[in-house]
Each structure stands twice: as structure tokens, then as C-alpha cells.
Amino acid sequence: MSETTPQISEQTPPLAAEPAPQAAAKASGRGPAWLALLVGLAGLGVGAWSAWQLHQQQGQAAEQLERLREIGAATETRLQGSEDSVAKKLAGLPSADQLATQRDLLVSLQGEQQRLAQSLSGLLGKSREDWRLAEAEHLLRLAMLRLSALQDVDSAIALVQGADDILRAQNDPQAFAARGELIKVLEALRSLPQLDRSGLFLQLAALRGQAAQLQTLTPEYLVPAEAPAGANNASDASRWEELWQQVSRYVRIDLHADQDVRPQLAGQSLAQVRLTLVLALEQAQWGALNGEPEVYRQALAAAGDVLDSYFDRDNQAVQALRQRIGELAEQPVVAQLPKLDNALDVLQAYLKRREAAELMPDAQAEPALEPDIEAIEEDGQ
């Protein structure tokens, strides 16, 4: 116990100096307090900022939620309208039985349309064939007209050949008899001599122009030139020759008394002779153009007689014209033309049989071919 007391007494003086450490402790305790205060303020600020951010986010979330609700309401309204329209449309749609009925009607309509298209194509094909056959008949009639009216063999050959080409393109056995008649006509026409009536007509027209320029039979006498001034010293022979030249102007002596003496033509008489020659050539033109051989030859003979009687035979122009008239007189103006009536009758019979076969059913049209084949065989025999 005695030892403890002095230790206490020794420690007592430091207690007297206690106020200084407390001030330091107080001073050191203020720093953490301010730091805690600052931390608290910072935490408070952060909390306030977080609360403000949370408030902002809640407001945005509320706006977005409101927008989503509006969008959902609009979508629901649209869906409701779509459902109503779909319901209306579905209500307007036919039922399964109606759909099946409409499907059957569509199938039947398609079948009818296909049959109609086939029938139309068949009718158009037959119509084209009928038109072609009608064209063949028309060509044959034109050939008959060309032969009978103008006797134009070349045109008739071309027309009959066209009709035969149409029948050949048909490729129908029933047309065999008609083609046989057409080929007979073609061969008969090709064997005819070539007639050029238009050429004869034009050649005679050219001869008419030459005839209008011909001179008369008696040649023109030339008046001799007068004797020069020194002719007084000529001999007696030259005087007699001069006298003979003067007398020959008025007197003509013909030593060929056995020949026919024809008067000299001049003025109106010459015009009449030329007119007679021109008229004979025009008559020959008419005979050539109309296929009248007698008229043609008689007119050319008359033109030759006029040339021989009233024009100088020694004249070169007269000789050339006389030679051309003789050559043209030998040209044929008509030929024995074949008849096309039989070919036309056979073609018309074929057209009638074809039309009747189209109107009849197929089962009845087939036996109708046998008589035609038998008729063809009879024609061949």
C-alpha cells in the first residue's frame, strides 16, 4: 500500500496540465465532424439527385405507360373495326355449298368456252376454204369471159392455172374430177397458136400512118434548066434536044401500049384514094380485134388492090407497105377455142357436194364419198 501512494502522487501533477490535450482533442474531433457533415451532405445531394432522377424516370415511365395505353386503345379500336369488317366480309362470303356450286359452274363454263373456241376455229377454217373455192369458181368464170370476149389465151391460161392451184391446195380427193377437167382445158389452151390481136391492131395503125404519105402512080416531071447564053453556037443535035425537052413538058409518049394507062391523080382524087386505103386498113383492124378472119383478110386484100392500082409499084415505100400487108394477111386472128362449160359444171357440182357434206353429220357424210369415187373412176375409163 505504501508503494502505491507515491506513484499516485507522482502522477498527480500531470493532471494539472489536462486542459491542453482536451483542446487538441476538440480540435482534432472537429475535422471528422466536418468530414462526416460533408459526406452527409454529399450523400444527401446524391440521394436528392437520385430521387430527382427516379422521379423523372417515374414521370417518363408514366408518360410511356400512358402512350402505351393510348396505342393499345387505338390498336384495340382498329382490331375491333377490323374484326367488324372481317365479320361483315365473312358474312357476305358464300357458304361451302355455294362455293361448290360456283366451282361447278366455272368448270362447266370453261368447258363451254373451249368447245366454242374449237367450233369457232373450225368455222373460220371452213370459211377460208369456202372462200378459196369460191375464188376458184370466179377465176374460171373470168377465164371464160376472156376467151369469149377477147379470145385472150394467155390470160385464160393464167386464170385456169390459178383455179387449179386452189383445188390442189385443198388436198381433197373429191376435187379429183374437177382438177381433171381443169387440166384438160389447160392443155387445150396451151396447144393453141399464139394470137396477138393487140399487136396486129397496133401494126395496122402504123401502116395507116405510112399510107397517108404515099405518092401517086405517075412520077413528077422535072423541068430542065434553061440553056446558057452561048447555046446559039450549038450543033443541030443539041437544038433538036432542047426542042424535045420543051415539048416533053406538054406531051408524053408511052411506048408500052399493051399496059393499062391510068390517069394521073391529083388534089381531091388523091385524097379520096388515100382515104380509101386508110378505111381498108381500119376495117382490117376491126376484124383483127373482134376475131373476124374473113373481114380481116378481105380488108387487107382491098388495101393491096388500092396500092397496086393507084400508086407507083416501083416506089420503095409502096413496095414496103405492100409487103407488110401481105405478111399481116397471113397472121391468124382467131383460133378454135376450147369450151370451159364442162369444167365449170364439174367444179360447181364439187362445191355443192362439199356444202352438203358439211351440213350432214359425219356418219352420214362418209358414205356419200363412194358415188364420187365411182364417178371419178367412170370418168377415168
Automatic annotation (TrEMBL):
InterPro entries in UniProt: HemX
Region (Disordered): 1-24, 361-381
Gene Ontology MF, one: methyltransferase activity
Gene Ontology BP term (one): methylation
Bias (Polar residues) ranges: 1-12
Biased composition (Acidic residues): 369-381
Biased composition (Low complexity): 13-24
A family per Pfam: HemX
Protein name as catalogued: Uroporphyrin-III C-methyltransferase HemX
Species of origin: Aquipseudomonas alcaligenes (strain ATCC 14909 / DSM 50342 / CCUG 1425 / JCM 20561 / NBRC 14159 / NCIMB 9945 / NCTC 10367 / 1577) (Pseudomonas alcaligenes)
Name of the encoding gene: hemX
